Amino acid sequence: MEIAQNQKDFNRHATDHLLNSWIQYTPEISPDSFFKSLEIGRDLSVDEITGIGLKIDDYLEKLYADLEVHAPQSDTRALFNSIREIEHHEKDKLTRVANSVYDM
Questions:
Q1: 61-81 pLDDT, tens per residue?
Q2: pTM for the complete prediction?
Q3: Sorting pLDDT into bands at 50, 70 and 90, what band is 58?
Q4: Sequence-separated (6 or more) residues with CB below 8 Å from residue 102
Q5: Please, which residues have CB within 8 angstroms of residue 75's CB and are 6 or more apart in sequence?
Q6: Number of Cα atoms under 13 Å in the Cβ half of residue 82
Q7: Of 42, 71, 96, 97, which is the most exposed, with the fewest CB atoms less than 10 Å away?
Q8: What distance lies between CA 18 and its chain's CA centroid?
Q9: Vertex 35 angle, CA 50 and 46, to 5°
């Protein structure tokens, strides 16, 4: 997955300043609460799987946008902007893949 590779690259090249940045922000819905709220069962349809994936993408995009707004330094804001753009790209990819299933 592109996000996993980007995470590895970031950890290799990030400065201590960026890694030690503190952002005073609490999301409206904690990641733990969000993921627990997802209804993931057995034998899900393509639409259900896609819907769950899109909910996750929407949540992460909003989280990254909020972190970008609350980040105190410009390099930290740029980082969250970049991550949000990657997440948006992943969301578009999921939509294309789901649509291609119906074209089969």
A1: 999 999 999 988 888 888 889
A2: 0.78
A3: very high
A4: 46
A5: 15, 17, 18
A6: 11
A7: 42
A8: 19
A9: 15
pLDDT given for residue 51 in this prediction: 93
Q: 18 or 44, which is more confident? A: 44
DSSP assignment letter at 40? -
Nearest to 60 by CA among 33, 38, 91: 91
Q: Which of 71, 59, 77, 81 is nearest to 24 (CA)?
A: 71
- State how far the Cα of 60 lies from the Cα of 34, in Å rounded to an integer: 10
* Contact yes or no for 87/61 (Cβ under 8 A): yes
Q: Where are the alpha helices (DSSP H) in 20-73?
A: 31-37, 46-70
Token pair of 51 as six digits: 């819907």
At residue 1, does pLDDT exceed 60?
Answer: no
Classify 15 in phi/psi space as left (phi over 0), alpha (psi -120 to 50) or beta: beta
Predicted pLDDT at 41? 85
* 87, burial (CB in 10 Å: exposed 0-12, middle 13-18, buried 19+): buried
